[in-house]
Amino acid sequence: MASKIAVVTGANKGLGFSIVKGLCLKFDGVVYLTARDEKRGLEAVDKLKALGLHPEFHLLDVSNENSVKNFADYIKTKHGRLDVLVNNAAILEWNEIYPTYDAAKRNIDINYRSLLTIEKWLYPLLTDGARVVNVSSACGHLSNLKNKKWLEILQKKDLTTKEINDFVEEYLESVRNGTFNKDDFADDGKHAEHRVSKMAMTALTMVQQRKYQDKNISINAVHPGHIKTDMANGGGDLEADKAAQTILYLILDASPNMKGVFMWHDKKIVDWYDYEGDYFCKDVW
Fold first, then answer.
1. Which domains does the chain possess?
2. InterPro entries recorded for this chain (predicted)?
3. Is 3 exposed, middle or buried (0-12, 13-18, 19+ CB in 10 A)?
4. N or C: where does the chain have the smaller number of CB atoms within 10 Å of the terminal CB?
């Protein structure tokens, strides 16, 4: 039987790097460390090789459809399958708490819209029993949202990708035309762009799980904790290797019947729909 294949996006540093390291130690198959910067990606692979681990490297810019397509073509030609996919690539620009339209769009293009491109090109390669983990955050819980209209829509059990896209578009349009309302979000709407991108990602997790039910694929979202990485801008209270354990659990050890859940960093499953719960992202800016 052909080797199993695992892919981690945005993996040249931080959490992605730790996930690749953990998979190299425990996953029975080929592990791809992908990054949008070839030099940094190859340096990351060299660091792991120095530890006696052997990931493969491939260039992958998740925000560029040609790059995603080229990578999918490569995996299809070389392996014909994909067994594990960790959607980890993400950005957060700290210097704009209330971002410009361009900064908000950049965040959403990389953190959310890239997942639609990945679904288009990489999901057809997922095998029966494959596992997908979408790396969300506390910003991705529905309690970050206060706007009643969108709360009602995003809670729908028959939510569609189009409705998620409309939510994202309406937020971006409000930034573009100056009608953005801080009261539509928790915590005075600080970094609403990140909240929107991560809530959209978590909502998409639920939609995709429903869509791919027949293929017996597990698609789950996870809040890995406030991690000591570049994205935490000097903050964070969890080492990346520790935070990676929750993602590795979902990939390697969780029941295959665990599908469409939102898992907290302590491996507890939280109710994503509990918009009145105390889960929203706060005090990290």
1. 4-270 (3.40.50.720)
2. NAD(P)-bd_dom_sf, SDR_fam
3. exposed
4. N
